[in-house]
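Summary for the steering committee. One of the milestones for this cycle was to obtain a three-dimensional model of the protein with NAP bound, which we needed before selecting residues for the alanine scan. The sequence and ligand used are listed below.
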Amino acid sequence: MRTLLTGSKGQLARCFRDRLPDNWELIATDSTSLDITDAEAVRNMVQNFQPDAIVNAAAFTAVDKAETHVGTAFAVNATAVHNLASAARA
Ligand SMILES: NC(=O)c1ccc[n+]([C@@H]2O[C@H](COP(=O)([O-])OP(=O)(O)OC[C@H]3O[C@@H](n4cnc5c(N)ncnc54)[C@H](OP(=O)(O)O)[C@@H]3O)[C@@H](O)[C@H]2O)c1
C-alpha cells in the first residue's frame, strides 16, 4: 500500500505513523515539502508517487485564529482538500 501523508509533523500524523503496518510504503510530507494549498505541487506529488491512498492530516487547527485568518483557514481546511481530491481523481 502506497500512502501519501500530509501534515506529517502534526499530532494526528504522528499517531498514524506510529501505527502504520511495516509493509506500507509511506511518503510523509510536511508544510515545507508539500504545501497542500498549492494545487500544482499537490498534483505533481500525486502524479509522481501514484499513491493508493492519501491521508490528509494537515489542517489549520488554531481555532481562535480562524476568525482573524479566515483566508488561510479556508485555504488549508477547504480549498486544499479540494486540491487533494482533484489530484486523487486525476
Ligand atoms: N489531535 C487530535 O486529537 C485530533 C482528533 C480528531 C481529529 N483531528 C483532526 O486532525 C487534523 C489534524 O489535527 P492535529 O491535531 O494533528 O493538528 P496539528 O498538530 O496542528 O497538525 C496540523 C499539521 O498541519 C500542517 N499544515 C498546516 N497548513 C498546512 C499546509 N498548507 N500544507 C501542509 N501542511 C499544513 C501543520 O504544519 P505546520 O505546523 O508546519 O504549519 C501541522 O503539522 C485536524 O483536522 C483535526 O481536526 C485531530
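Key point for the committee: Helices lie at 11-18, 39-49, 70-89.
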